[in-house]
Amino acid sequence: FGIPSDETFVITTTNRKEITEDNFGELVHDGVTLYLLQSVDQMLLLATKERIDFLPHYDTLVKSGMYEYYASEGQNPLPFALAELIDNSLSATSQNTGIRSIQIKLLFDDSQGKPAVAVIDNGSGMTSKQLNNWAVYRLSKFTRQGDFESDHSGYVRPLPVPRSLNSDISYFGVGGKQAVFFVGQSARMISKPAASQDVHELVLSKEDF
């Protein structure tokens, strides 16, 4: 730090608690911000910045659909939730040069597992990175600039038109995940990028959380 050998200094937390040999071990893995000062009560010369990293509570994701769709002002919310899921397929198939296929299946065969809603399309597919990005709450809204492998890379947004098969329902944000956790308790995304032989699978499960 360029401190002369004859100069005294203290290390403190942002609450001005001095770090000593006795309490240092408590802070090693906490990721706290520390000050290097001439004295505990030294006046800061400049405003300080601190980076905050946190993991949201899983209820932020798994209950968001309930809050969103139950607030639909008396309308039947299920069609809106299904429309959000279909929107992913509309985006994925928007650049198809051939047939654009989107299927919705309601699965109730107990021998195959729990009841499920399946939305299947022949779109461009997602890489493992794009699947990861889709899973992160609101990530796409803040990383769409400059991320060469964002969850909508290669996608061209259609011109603004009334809601139709050529428009977006929720291009950015959390709509798809809210819809998933309104309709059910888990999401399984299976995707094969058009130019790859690899198949990627992502599971978001309330039970696992």
Automatic annotation (TrEMBL):
TM spans (from-to): none
GO BP, one annotated term: double-strand break repair
Alphabetized CDD domains for the sequence: HATPase_SMCHD1-like
Matches recorded under SUPFAM superfamilies: ATPase domain of HSP90 chaperone/DNA topoisomerase II/histidine kinase (SSF55874)
Pfam families named in the record: HATPase_c_3 (PF13589)
Protein name: SMHD1 protein
Species in which this protein is naturally found: Promerops cafer (Cape sugarbird)
